[in-house]
Amino acid sequence: MPCNCCEITDNAFSEDEARSELRNYRKRGPAKQTKLILQAIRSLGLRNAELLDIGGGIGVIHHELLEDVADKVTHVDASSAYLKEAKAEAARRRHEERVHFIHADFTNVASELPKADIVTLDRVVCCYPDFRRLLKAAAEHSQRALAFTYPRETWYLRVGFRVMNFFQKLRKDPFRVFLHPVAEMDALLKREGFERVVLRRLFVWEMALYQRTAG
Ligand SMILES: C[S@@+](CC[C@H](N)C(=O)[O-])C[C@H]1O[C@@H](n2cnc3c(N)ncnc32)[C@H](O)[C@@H]1O
């Protein structure tokens, strides 16, 4: 799909938002849905793992997992503002040598990237129209596990997302949020050789951990 998603997403996430997210993270630690991903990944007992964090934002997942589970990280993000803050925090934690930062729409660069043990997408599929393309490419890059969070298919989020997209349209901002069908995402990952081993729910977000069962 020829797409200017990177440009659209880059415009959607401002430097102010990125700075404010980093301040919150430093003050309060990871957000609730991110903690679910971290717990799920840690429950696998992996060490010295390679992590591919897609749409990692300010980099919370790798700032945390480089302390115990991960050895090397690739962080691909469509937002230059978020990447800037992620790099600054990685340097502050002396992790910069272990993280490869790439500014891109993951689906455009996936074929050039190596596989990783773990792939994560925290609140990313809901920013991207073509979830099939994104999740398939993500799954193809995971040798062992894939964890992601996405908005739940509830009536209140359907209404909320419609309202948000209505205001985006009024503002003539092409960025949209998406409530993708969970059953289809699950079926796609199963076809790619994964099984779901953990499912946790919050009011807005659901977190699913998948493990590879077949090559
Ligand atoms: C809502 S933010 C979430 C950031 C972070 N994962 C978190 O939970 O705090 C969505 C992030 O996904 C990135 N993103 C969305 N679609 C992407 C794609 N196709 N490739 C790379 N990054 C993408 C955006 O640039 C943004 O940083």
Structure at a glance:
With 215 residues, this protein is α/β, with parallel strands linked by helices. It has helices at residues 5-12, 15-28, 32-42, 60-65, 80-92, 106-109, 131-140, 155-170, 182-191, and strands at residues 49-54, 70-77, 99-103, 116-122, 142-151, 194-201, 205-212.
- If helices are DSSP runs of H or I spanning 4 or more residues, what is the number of helices? 9
User: Could you list the spans in which at least 5 consecutive residues all have pLDDT below 50?
Assistant: none
Q: What class, by secondary structure content? A: alpha/beta
Succession of helices and strands: HHHEHEHEHEHEHHEE
Strand content: 15-25%
Largest sheet: 7 strands, mixed
Q: What is the tally of beta strands?
A: 7
Bound molecules: S-adenosylmethionine
Strand order in the largest sheet = 3-2-1-4-5-7-6
**Computed CA radius of gyration, to the nearest angstrom:** 16 Å
Shape: globular
Give the overall average pLDDT: 95
Specify the helix fraction band.
40-55%
How far from one another are the termini? 27 Å
